[in-house]
Amino acid sequence: MNPFAIYLCGVGGQGIGLLSEILLRAADYAGYVAKAVDTHGLAQRGGVVVSHIRLGETVHTPLIPAYGADLVVGLERHEALRGAQAMLRDGGALVYFDTVLQPLGVRLGTEAEITNADVDRACASRGIAVHRMTCPNLADPRMQNIVVLGHLHLLGLVGEVTAEHSLRAMDDLLEGPVLAANVGLFRSIAATARQAP
Q: How many CB atoms lie within 10 A of CB 179?
């Protein structure tokens, strides 16, 4: 794989850190040289959380420069658009879970809520492929990160990092009922895809 950069973004409490660690370990299991760093901001208070992951033999720093990401992964619509506008290269891919945790400006009425149409328009002008997902029957919203992870594999957006690599990473990081619930959800996404016409 040529150097490949993944920028992950969301809001504190959504599981960006876990998603980042799963992807990092999965890439390591797949044999990639991988570097990563998280910035948490005011994560405990609903602030922005971002992670940078860079894969490749010639990568010397985990930090992704502006417009240097090949893939932006968002767990919240506003942050997904911000990430795409600031970090994603032209022709890259944006994957996001379609939920809104309203930024302060939206709550105060000083900013408009970003719609899916806004995301589509901004990305179309730069040739960015947009992949949006929801999971209406999700029992625990903290598992939105696993929904996104499953779809990253279904869409083939993480190179030769396979679902089995991610399952090994989950086994490293989680245990007991939490592991079982996350693995069950992850496998159900693959099963749903196999049943699709």
A: 15
Question: What's the residue count for the chain?
Answer: 197
- Cα separations in angstroms, 77 against 97, 102, 113, 160: 7, 9, 9, 27
Q: Which two tokens stand for residue 145?
A: 């990160």
pTM comes to: 0.91
Among 74, 98, 75, 97, which Cα is nearest to 86's?
74
Q: Are 16 and 159 in contact (CB under 8 A)?
A: no
- 95, with CB counted inside 10 A (0-12, 13-18, 19+), is buried
* Pairing, β 69-74 against β 129-133: unpaired
- 49, 10 in Cβ contact below 8 A? yes
Confidence of residue 182 (pLDDT cuts 50, 70, 90): very high
Alpha-carbon span 74 to 96, nearest angstrom = 4
| CA–CA separation, 44 and 50 (whole Å) | 13
